[in-house]
Design goal:
Layout: E1 5-8, H1 14-17, E2 22-24, E3 28-30, E4 40-44, E5 50-56, E6 61-68, H2 76-94, E7 117-122, E8 131-136, E9 139-144, H3 147-151, H4 153-162, E10 169-173, E11 188-192, E12 199-202, E13 205-208, H5 224-233, E14 238-242, H6 248-255, E15 260-265, H7 268-281, E16 288-292, H8 295-301, E17 309-312, H9 324-341, E18 346-352, H10 359-373, E19 377-384, E20 402-408
Parallel strand pairs: 1-4, 9-10, 14-15, 14-17, 15-16, 17-18
Antiparallel strand pairs: 1-3, 2-6, 4-5, 5-6, 7-8, 8-9, 10-11, 12-13, 18-20, 19-20
The protein binds S-adenosyl-L-homocysteine.
S-adenosyl-L-homocysteine binds at residues 220, 223, 243-246, 248-249, 265-267, 270, 294-295, 313-315.
């Protein structure tokens, strides 16, 4: 293929030869005139060896690599191949039949699988930097984080329905994820098919997914395994689910036999989603209550020992490195309040989904919080993202979800 060529400075190909998927703008010696955001480019070393192909973008990450060493046409066939690899991995994770939906009796909504919500593409972790695809039964929701993936969206959509995964509808959602400086026209729209159902299942529990207006692709599929773990700890406990969003942890706690479950989120929309999801699984169950309130204020106002299982799953406090210090202070403050107030023998599930905060930094923030309260705290589990959010070993930045389960005496 004859894609425009970007030439690197001497030695700047070294990390790429170890498959790190980003070219930083400072590594570039020469870029052809007239290349535009989202263009496919060939990257070569200073001595003109082909390193691979990628998407060009203006910014500190100038190229996101899609192939290494190969010169191929990056069209629908390329996406078909990559998505096929991604699906094969999910089949190994979940078992083949769990990813298929029976459509023989759509009118009775007969499903043979318990997990219809999964991440099919996790950016660099699936060798497709800039692309996220979550699947909810018959609908795939695409998020583009780079102009290149934005321009490739129709090819990706076509490749998705061609897969043997029973995807019939493809919704594209890029309004909040594309770099706004790129001046693209972000769209939220069906590229293929249309609305069929907004109900999917996770580990046999049902939930509504609002990909039209919800955060991210409409549901946080990355907490699936951690919710299942929480279920095991819920029996007879008084559970407080802070930052509940669509209430994932809440309905698992209820299935686990919690005495009561209180869900808190500052967004009224999130609270109504939580109520709807609890109703879907446990209609009329009086154990659940939801509060549209600020988490910090809520924690200030509860009595000591009122809850003996608390979940803290706040939004990313640090979206960028510059905000790191404040973010760490935020985690410390939040965790200190929960540790201070949880009942003796209480279990705290605490998370950080900030990519800029490392596992060690998060643990240090929680350690400082514990020390501040003077209580005895032990770590029972160290949690992370599930296997359908794989981390490319050459791109450790892809490991973003960190969690600790603490036992507080
Ligand atoms: N635990 C959820 C995901 C949490 S996303 C799940 O399992 O799906 C983070 C949530 O925190 C969002 O719903 C957001 O509305 C809420 N939020 C953000 N700031 C908050 C605050 N100060 N107090 C309470 N909720 C807040």
């Amino acid at each position: 293929m004859t894609y425009p060529i970007i030439t690197l400075k001497p030695h700047k190909e070294e990390s790429l030869e170890r498959f790190h998927p980003w070219v930083f703008s400072g590594a570039i010696a020469k870029a052809p005139e007239g290349i535009e955001e989202g263009d496919i480019v060939a990257v070569e070393s200073h001595d003109h060896r082909l390193i691979g192909l990628g998407h060009y973008q203006i910014g500190s990450i100038a190229v996101r690599m899609l192939t290494f060493g190969e010169d191929a046409e990056l069209g629908t066939d390329f996406y078909r191949q990559r998505l096929q690899q991604a699906l094969r991995l999910r089949q190994s994770i979940f078992g083949n039949d769990k990813l298929q939906i029976t459509n023989d009796k759509p009118e009775t909504d007969q499903r043979k699988t318990e997990n219809e919500a999964y991440r099919l593409v996790h950016g660099e972790g699936d060798f497709l930097p800039g692309l996220v695809v979550d699947v909810y039964g018959p609908t795939a929701v695409i998020q583009a984080h780079s102009p290149g993936m934005h321009f490739a969206r129709m090819q990706i959509a076509q490749a998705l329905v061609d897969l043997d995964a029973d995807i019939r509808n493809v919704y594209y959602k890029s309004e909040t994820t594309l770099p706004y400086k790129a001046h693209l026209d972000p769209v939220n729209a069906y590229l293929i098919g249309k609305y069929e159902t907004d109900i999917a299942q996770e580990n046999g529990l049902k939930f509504h997914v609002d990909w039209l207006k919800g955060q991210k692709t409409g549901f946080f599929v990355d907490q699936r395994d951690n919710r299942a773990l929480l279920e095991r700890y819920s029996k007879d406990r008084k559970v407080l689910n802070m930052f509940c969003y669509t209430g994932g942890f809440s309905f698992y706690a209820m299935r686990g036999g919690a005495q009561l479950v209180h869900s808190v989120d500052s967004s009224a929309k999130a609270i109504s989603l939580t109520n709807a999801n609890v109703e879907l699984n446990f209609p009329g169950d009086p154990r659940h209550k939801a509060y549209a309130e600020d988490a910090f204020k809520f924690l200030d106002n509860i009595g000591k020992g009122e809850y003996d299982l608390i979940v803290l799953d706040p939004p990313a406090f640090a979206k960028h490195r510059t905000a790191l210090k404040n973010a760490l202070r935020g985690y410390q403050r939040l965790n200190a309040r929960a540790i201070e107030r949880i009942a003796p023998g209480g279990i705290l599930f605490t998370f950080s989904c900030s990519q800029a905060v490392s596992k060690e930094q998060f643990r240090l923030a929680v350690f400082s919080a514990a020390a501040q309260t003077g209580r005895r705290v032990r770590i029972l589990h160290q949690l992370t993202q599930p296997a359908d959010h794989p981390v490319n070993i050459y791109h450790p930045e892809g490991e973003y979800l960190k969690g600790l389960v603490l036992y507080v005496e």
